[in-house]
Amino acid sequence: MADYxxxxxxxxxxxxxxxAADGRLVWYRSRNFGASGRLRRGVRTILHDLPxxxxxxxxxxxxxxxxxxxxxxxxxxxxxQISAETWRTSLLYDRQQRTGQKAKQTxxxxxxxxxxxxNLPGPTALRHDAAEAILIGLWAVRxxxxxxxxxxxxxx
Length: 156
Prior knowledge:
Layout: E1 4-9, E2 13-20, E3 25-32, H1 36-48, E4 53-59, H2 63-74, E5 78-82, H3 84-91, H4 100-117, H5 128-143
Parallel strand pairs: 1-4, 4-5
Antiparallel strand pairs: 1-2, 2-3
Helix pairs in contact: 1-2, 3-5, 4-5
């Protein structure tokens, strides 16, 4: 069974990005849970459907993060909980993150490069939460040692 890392841009509107142990993106998506009860049920289903999940990396905190963290702990999945600044300072130049809008635009462009590098079909539409989950995951695969350095085309 392969090892996977799931990156989550957490909220009721959630971005998800799954990475394989070779550091490449496997899939990405956005999900609008709408309410915490649906999020709780959705988290159980998502984690259940990923039997090779070794890592869960969440951007964000509070009660919604607790839902993810408790379910991961119940399944024996290692977790990292970070803030946006953690991955942004590692992957983006200061000028690319001076405003939230600029950081989101840069994240969209960089996420498209990760998608191409991972040999996945280009998205018809890419929501900012999925793009940020892709970059959270890119940061995380380096952090856990699955990718020693960013490929040249993914440098900021």
